[in-house]
Design a protein that fits this description.
Elements lengths: L2 H22 L4 E5 L8 E5 L1 H21 L8 H14 L6 H19 L7 H32 L4 H7 L5 H19 L7 H8 L2 H11 L1 H14 L5 H24 L3 H28 L3 H36 L10 H4 L1 H14 L7 H14 L6 H34 L5 H4 L6 H19 L5 H10 L6 E2 L4 E3 L5 E2 L1 H22 L26 H11 L1 H4 L2 E8 L7 E9 L3 H21 L7 H22 L1
Antiparallel strand pairs: 1-2, 3-4, 4-5, 6-7
Helix pairs in contact: 1-2, 1-3, 2-3, 2-9, 2-13, 2-19, 3-4, 4-5, 4-9, 5-6, 5-7, 5-8, 7-10, 8-9, 8-12, 9-13, 10-12, 11-12, 11-17, 12-13, 12-17, 13-15, 13-16, 13-19, 13-20, 15-17, 15-19, 16-17
């Protein structure tokens, strides 16, 4: 990326970070620009909730701008990337329906153009662009319908008018508005079953764009649910949040299962994003459910847990995608089965990927641990809330989080072990080289954010207090070096956990070296029956590593196998070649989207008969349409 583009992007990120931090500190501001849009104009307002998402986006954008300075420039990204980043920061600041819709559409179109940067060279990029365009525009149609109905029933399009008019809306109208908006926002967040665009777009987008989309853009789907569902609509009914809990749980489990089966590094990370957004949605759904039941403090705890995990996800997933972009830049491949040996050839990138993976598996001292631990605490203490729904749903949610954490550990052990620590499996991996200093510096900033969030999560306590107040809940957190929960009797000090683990590791290594001191020995290869030294072909691949998990979840994943036997020409009893093909397709895409696409293709082919080229027939179509419209108007009048 050019120096001017990097500087512009960094300036946008710094502005968003500063504005967001000021809002989290208690500074609120609003502005109106009537001349920018007809009728309503452009209205912007920043509170603590907006500030959180602006600060997260600004921090990631700043790091990615440094990273992009050393990345190969894709067509059009130099001028478009700063504009896209500016829209990402402005979306949470929108304070009216027209402003929000305008910025949302600009964000969708800008990200689509960035994804299509290499559409002329690769067909897969064009296919990813089509999927992303269709899904994002369908989401926009639902968003437009929901916000249009909301504004019409509340009597105004500003957020203040929406907030004031929500109490006067009937339960049916509020429910319809929430369902329409929830589908649109969960589609942007990559929640199953609306996730089909996500692995395609993330995999085919350039490295900096993938990092921005995964670490910032998907967050805005969660922002929309919190802003409209909790703040503007006022919480609504319990079934709203039970539906979100169910969607989040399905997305978490299904996303991590698909990540476990994936051999494409960037698709693996994309499905991991779907899993983590599912965990965030579990927290938001639990918070809404507790708020409906009247326990505002427990609602604040669950919402704070969800937002803390969202912040942590932005840090470690941005780092992971930047590291994956470095791998693709150095090798030209994304297939883990074709990589290996990168730890020796790209040591800094491997270390950064390992740090991001530690956050993704939610184990101490990784930065993902605090958010998931706090989320588990909120769900466990929520069992005291009376009601059949909570008694059934919350234990299932706890089980989902535990299952996703275990599978996530297997996912990133596979990615690290096969991609970085195994032997090279091809010339691309053998010839890999370390990334240039700007890319390492950008990843270093994200790594520093991961380390800071892992060791001092309690520093976010006051900011999260203000955010949950805006959403209508009571703050559960106190300040200090650790996470102090006033709603539950529990405490956590990640700094001491990290220090204890470090001391244990150093002590164990030292003890082993002291005990193992023996006279020097000469190493020699063991007799191997003439088989020769092991080769990379004998090592585990990503596919073979995931095969035991695939067998356990066969009924969910529905893998496909095909064996083709080719006999020799002279005899049908002698085999010339046997081909075995095994793949694990996205079952939801296979069962849900493929029939729809086939039906649309059939409708398109059938509609060709209507275009016969006859002018008389076309005039008949117009006459029939006009008569039908007049009949409808007459009946309606």
């Amino acid at each position: 990326m050019s120096a001017a583009g990097s500087l512009a992007t960094a300036g946008v990120g710094a502005a968003g970070l500063a504005t967001g931090c000021a809002a989290l500190a208690g500074v609120r501001w609003s502005a109106s620009y009537a001349w920018l849009l007809p009728l309503g104009g452009v209205r912007l307002e920043v509170d603590a909730l907006s500030g959180l998402f602006m600060a997260v986006a600004g921090a990631v954008i700043l790091a990615v701008a440094v990273y992009a300075a050393g990345f190969a420039d894709s067509p059009g990204s130099g001028a478009l990337l700063p504009c896209f980043c500016a829209v990402l920061i402005l979306v949470p600041a929108a304070a009216s329906v027209s402003t929000f819709l305008l910025l949302w559409e600009l964000m969708a179109v800008g990200s689509l153009v960035l994804v299509l940067g290499e559409h002329r060279e690769r067909r897969a990029v064009r296919e990813a662009g089509v999927w992303y365009a269709v899904m994002t525009q369908l989401g926009f149609v639902l968003l437009l319908a929901g916000l249009g109905l909301y504004a019409a029933r509340s009597g105004g399009e500003t957020f203040d008018a929406l907030r004031a008019g929500a109490s006067g809306m009937g339960p049916l109208s509020r429910g319809i508005v929430f369902v329409l908006l929830a589908i649109a926002f969960t589609s942007k967040a990559g929640i199953v079953p609306l996730h089909a665009w996500l692995p395609r777009a993330y995999a085919e987008a350039p490295g900096p764009v993938s990092a921005l989309m995964s670490a910032t853009m998907v967050n805005l789907g969660v922002y929309g649910i919190v802003r409209f569902g909790l703040d503007l609509l006022g919480g609504g009914s319990a079934w709203w949040w039970l539906g979100l809990l169910a969607a989040g749980g399905v997305s978490a489990v299904y996303g991590v299962l698909q990540a476990a089966m994936a051999a494409d590094l960037k698709r693996l990370l994309a499905y991991s994003s779907s899993e983590n957004m599912g965990l965030v949605l579990i927290g938001v759904g639990a918070g809404g459910l507790f708020a409906v039941d009247g326990d505002r403090r427990l609602a604040g705890l669950a919402l704070a847990a969800a937002l803390l995990h969202l912040i942590n996800h932005s840090a470690f997933k941005g780092l992971l995608f930047c590291a994956a972009g470095s791998v693709v830049r150095a090798t030209g491949v994304r297939d883990l089965d074709a990589l290996g040996g990168l730890r020796a050839r790209m040591p800094v990138t491997a270390a950064f990927f390992a740090l991001g993976a530690l956050g993704a598996v939610a184990l101490p001292p990784g930065n993902g641990f605090a958010g998931e631990w706090l989320l588990l605490q909120s769900l466990i203490h929520g069992l005291a809330v009376p009601g059949v729904a909570t008694a059934v749903v919350l234990p299932l949610a706890v089980a989902v989080i535990a299952l996703s954490a275990g599978l996530s550990a297997a996912v990133f052990v596979k990615a690290l072990g096969v991609g970085f620590f195994a032997r090279p499996r091809g010339g691309a991996a053998s010839g890999a080289y370390e990334s240039p200093p700007p890319m390492l510096a950008g990843m270093g900033l994200l790594a520093a954010a991961c380390a800071g969030l892992a060791l001092f999560p309690g520093a976010l306590g006051p900011a999260l207090d203000r955010v949950v107040r805006v959403a209508g809940a009571q703050p559960p957190l106190g300040g200090g070096a650790g996470l102090r929960l006033t709603a539950v009797s529990a405490a956590l000090s990640p700094l001491w956990v990290a220090a204890a683990l470090t001391a244990a590791v150093v002590g164990t290594v030292t003890l082993v070296r002291v005990v193992a001191r023996r006279p020097r020995r000469t190493g020699a290869r063991l007799w191997d029956c003439g088989g020769g030294a092991p080769t990379p072909r004998m090592a585990y691949t990503a596919t073979s590593f995931a095969e035991p998990l695939q067998r356990v979840f066969d009924q969910v994943l529905a893998p496909e196998q095909d064996v083709s036997v080719t006999p020799v020409r002279e005899s049908a009893y002698l085999i010339e070649r046997v081909r075995f093909r095994h793949r694990v397709p996205d079952r939801i895409e296979h069962r849900l989207y493929r029939p729809v696409l086939e039906a649309m293709a059939w409708a398109g082919r059938s509609s060709r008969r209507l275009a016969s080229g006859s002018v008389h027939l076309y005039l008949g179509y117009g006459f029939f349409g006009l008569v039908s419209l007049l009949v409808v108007l007459a009946v309606g009048w």
